[in-house]
Amino acid sequence: MRFSQLFGRTLREVPAEAELVSHQLLVRAAMIRQLAAGIYSYLPLGWRVLAKIERILREEMDRIGGQELLLPVVHPAEVWQATGRWQAPAPGPALVRFRDRWGHDLVIAMTHEEVIADLVKSEVFSYRQLPFMVYHIQTKFRDEPRPRGGLIRVREFVMKDAYSCHTDQASLDEFYPKMYEAYVKIFQRCHLDHVAVEADTGMMGGAVSHEFMAITNIGEDTLIACGGCAYSANVERAEFRKGVPSAEAEREIQPVPTPEMKTIEDVAAFLGVPTEQTLKAVFYTTSLGELIFAVIRGDLSINEVKLTNVLGGAELHPATEEELQAHGIVAGYASPVGLSGLSGVRVVADDSVRLGRNLVAGANRPGYHYLNVNYPRDFQADIEADIALARTGLPCPRCESVLSEARGIELGHLFKLGTRYSAAVGANYLDQEGRPRPIVMGSYGIGTGRLLAAIVEEHHDERGIIWPPSVAPFQVHLVTLGLDQPEVAAAADALYGELQQAGLEVLYDDREESAGVKFNDADLIGIPLRLTVSPRNLKADKVEAKLRWEPERTLLPRAQAAALAQSLLEHAELPE
After folding, report:
1. What phi, psi does 73 have (nearest 5°)?
2. pTM value?
């Protein structure tokens, strides 16, 4: 490709709206352009990178027996209604719904579990057809309320989705590690440092999921990891040890005055007890108007994802003081004691409340708290579960070493869906005895644009992008200086042809620009190998070669430049 004919122009200035490095560089390097919030066009350079990523995805999916197909972007509402996700609080408004000219309800795909389950329903009849795995690379749309970071969080995006179908859980369990290893190979081939963590299944459902994450300070997700063992999890799912049950004898509950003491810290200091000897009350209201009283040990915090999950995916927002007053609850002094059976209020207790004895809790009376509150003697919960947020410094749930936090970008996600979708749409097979059984499913996704952005976040310097050779838009950036001299132009044209004949992908900068402009663009775009034809080197019958990530330049014999360039690329290694 001749640079003079390349569609898209590089930019010198950093776009005002671009905060992340990947966003800045992808725009400046003429890889992407924004059409609307969270919606981007890929220019030819960016599209070539995306195509390289998709090729890696296809190769690794095919390697473990995947069959590529293509599923539609627009779905009839009926398949989403069958699984309950049309009505469920999640995905809620993120799922774009519309009606066609005949009044039929439709959705724009944000994921394809419903569609694959409906397709399998009509194609699979016998256990002899199982197991298998299919995949596609398709556009999706999720109406994110806060798109940000260029390609990190968008509304329109492309994903590689794979779906496996099995006779039973054992078959899914046997296949799952193969997909796990395929993901490891994909991220290795993209030269991305990554970690796999246990993750929340969210609106997808299922019992088990793993998230692959790139560790970076700009990441939107928080992962919790143990320094003493292999435990790691997304903070939405992470667990920790909350101690052992207290052996202290239960004492009689009694109210005590706590004037103007409304926070856990103030109450604990006033009464001379540690915060873990208190109970914290946190209130939410569901979209149906139900008040949720979440109660947890005072030194811990509520994990809203866990809370949402135990409530069956209910959409929550913090309760207002007016909503509390409507139920007779006093803000700052709220108590779970005496709330049992109160209409419109559901008490959800973290399992930490069972471990303590003689705790301090609100008395639901201004200026007063209770001493010696014990669960379940003094109050009962409608739901008791782990709803606590893990954080740095807490003990690991497996080995009791200290947990730590890191930020990360989600690269891919694996789900063991089980029979959630197949049972909902009636996707059954006949087993060896001729009995109908629901197909057991797995789902496996990777966002291609986010993967591209994560590569840039990891591989760049102050001058621009540093593309790993496996995904670079071109392999060689051929720069010509002194095009006004016919012998230089002729030599550069000849080398361009030789490089292409050797099977190399070349971006040939044939523009009438200064050396500074050409070298700056080469560094910004980040193609692995730069070859420069100049009058001075041509007199010595040489061509200058430089790997994007190396400071040194080398001189190649002009006659062997194409072959030596190929060898340089084959042995090129990105710095760790």
Report:
1. -80, -35
2. 0.87
